[in-house]
Amino acid sequence: MGAVLTLAKFIFITGGVVSSLGKGLAAAALGALLQARGYSVRLRKLDPYLNVDPGTMSPFEHGEVFVTDDGAETDLDLGHYERFTGVAARQTDSISSGRIYSTVLEKERRGDYLGKTIQVIPHVTNEIKDFIAIGEDEVDFMLCEIGGTVGDIEGLPFFEAIRQFSQDKPRGQCIFVHLTLLPFIKASGELKTKPTQHSVKELRSIGLAPDILVCRSEGPIPEKEREKLALFCNVRPDSVIAAQDLASIYEAPLAYHKEGLDQAVLDAFQIAPAPRPDLSRWLDVADRIYKPEGDIKVAIVGKYTQLEDAYKSIAEALTHGGMANRVRVNVEWVDAELCEREEVARYLEGFHAILEPGGIEARGTAGKIKAATYAREHKIPYLGICLGMQMAVIEAARNVIGVSDAGSEEFDHEAGGKRFEPVVYHLKEWVQGNHKVSRKVSDDKGGTMRLGAYDAHLSEGSRVADVYGTCAIEERHRHRYEVDIKYKAKLEKAGLSFSGMSPDGRLPEIVEWRDHPWFIGVQFHPELKSKPFDPHPLFKDFVRAAKDISRLV
Ligand code: GLN
């Protein structure tokens, strides 16, 4: 939708007291509510850490890396933004201190600052302010989430920049939403407001006064505490919004609406009369989430199973697939290294489907290959994503067409000198749009993968063409290695169709076993494009296949 308001309004979302309160989710749900009132929105994340982007950070540290159509490797909060608003994020929706500083330093080296002394104020803050304003004329509301918690050393330039930004704009163009925690103290049976008071005091000491407080708490906020928060934090009582724990994140838009968050935002901007919201999309989502008609069990065989955020979008896409089929998807995380050492049946028996997610390096891959054999032989629905597809192809090469040392070039350096037959090789040249991209083994690790949206052609009559309902698709990629088409003819003869290929026919995008109820490997990441109100076709049909199996047993 185009802009309705003449000037974009900016909503800055900050966090206090502790991290992990769900700022990203609150921002995403608020975006969805503003859309429900007919406005256009864009959400943006400003992360204070010094990495240039999260692309090189371990999923154990930071959860999954979310990839945009235009190839940015971003924070997983951008996944929430897309899942709640359906607005495709861009390179310009995610920034870190690392990138800001590297831009400033590049400019300094080029001589752009004409000999001036480079300082946090104004050079770094100006860079942040320019970033915030990108594309402001395209939308009604720009929601900017500041990563971390107020008081963090790295966050200071960002807080200073948003303070200046709101001063640079005409009055009434910017508001500040602060997310905090109200801890419940069992001994006294009370919700405590003091940490929030301190957090707001901290914000005010750097020149920011919140207009709205969103308070995470286990239960409702009693009137007395609400009034106390309003009084001590200098906000209106109806701008103290309770954010109680929810059974599903997809209830958040409805819950925040009930608490009056979107109304408080419109009031803060003095938008009256407020357009009435159409919440039908979210009512349907909640109905599907809370009233499933059955259960299925899916095993995710992966490496980062201790931290579920490492596969955030996959877990969400499975939930969406479940919603489309009106079943609850119960996910169990199976450590690939356990499958490596022992009989896989021990870990995989009883599941209605097996999913192998993306990943890097050799650790755990022997277990993943065993799990792929198990799914193929026992006719269990299998979805292999990126590394998961590579595992399925290596499995087929080893066990079906007799390439006993089939492997990936990615594993060679970890195999103690053993060299595998490169059925999966290091991709050094490919076509993006109408130009060639080249890579060397010695390239930097950051930002050098095959990243972002690429077209693929699906074979007529294939299962995937049927699932997608089209032969032309576009999906997001994030990988360095690629299945070699050298093995295509032999594998296809054995029953593994290469049913999706890059437009030039050189890069395998999808493989599927023909005589299997549902066995598909994809080189891309379909999970990144799934939404609760628009589940990805592959996840929808994967869950459907698992549901069919669950009815048989
Ligand atoms: N490590 C593999 C590659 O780079 C797979 C990457 C992934 O699963 N995202 O090709």
> Number of DSSP helices?
20
Straight-line N-to-C gap: 47 Å
Largest sheet: 9 strands, mixed
Estimate the strand proportion. 15-25%
Q: Which strand order do you get reading across the main beta sheet?
A: 13-12-14-15-25-24-23-20-21
CATH architecture of the largest domain: 3-Layer(aba) Sandwich
Bound molecules: glutamine
pLDDT averaged residue by residue: 92
Helix content: 25-40%
Shape: globular
How is this structure best described in words?
The chain is an alpha/beta fold and 553 residues long. 36% of the residues lie in helices and 23% in strands. It contains 20 helices and 25 strands. The strands form 6 sheets. It has a 9-stranded mixed β-sheet with strand order 13-12-14-15-25-24-23-20-21, with helices on both faces. The protein has a 7-stranded parallel β-sheet with strand order 5-2-6-1-7-10-11, sandwiched between helices. A 3-stranded mixed β-sheet has the order 16-17-22. The protein is globular and about 75 Å long. The site of glutamine (GLN) has 10 residues, from strand 21.
